[in-house]
């Protein structure tokens, strides 16, 4: 971090989520004020984007290290990464074949934050694009703080008191493969988190449930749990809280898992190749408005390598 700083431009991409950062070259070492500008933009906009950044694995790792400690590439699919880069998770077009037996998997994609089945989900994810199809494959993000703020005050007070159980599930209507079931059984990850999380840096309240991992709300009937989660999930997916990003080779998305959820593309029906690489950064244990921390029901924390 000895390079001279350059002026960074932070350009909002929607009303509540997403900003593109220009004027920085991520292939070189960054100055402290550049790192600070990027982090401030991340905290404000929940996801930041960069374009024309053709990083290799080592440069990707160096950029990630400015903000936190990389975790293992994935808590279940540890056999996928390059053994020389165990913290980099490749995201390829056919990646769901190891998990879902009755579809391509992309039609089962739901809003989620990464690895919330762990008691300490990653605080952030940094995804870079290398090879992309000529069309389709956009990713969306939603601001979970805006979603909480969009609830009426009585519903906010109710949500503040609730807790929910998160685990790995294959998706609605999806038939898991035997390999997927073996991996979940061998390394179970189940945690109870507050439905509303206090952001440790900004103090903001964020809805901390998601259709991808949240199984049920604790302490209420199954019927009540389904209705409450349906309400919260619908709020998270409201278009006004979201941003949609069209990938190009050299694009990077860096998002705050504590205050954003994302939706992987569901339109990858072509035979064109798609290759991206993700690094997740070690997170802390969520805390709710009442001061209670998340609890691990099964499994170990998802810690840095």
UniProtKB/TrEMBL annotation:
Pfam families: TauD. GO terms for cellular component: cytoplasm. Residues 13-280 form the TauD/TfdA-like domain. Transmembrane segments: none annotated. One of its GO terms (molecular function) is metal ion binding. Gene3D superfamilies: Clavaminate synthase-like (3.60.130.10). Keywords: Dioxygenase, Iron, Metal-binding, Oxidoreductase. Its cofactor is Fe(2+). PANTHER family: ALPHA-KETOGLUTARATE-DEPENDENT SULFATE ESTER DIOXYGENASE, ALPHA-KETOGLUTARATE-DEPENDENT SULFONATE DIOXYGENASE. Belongs to the TfdA dioxygenase family. This is TauD/TfdA family dioxygenase.
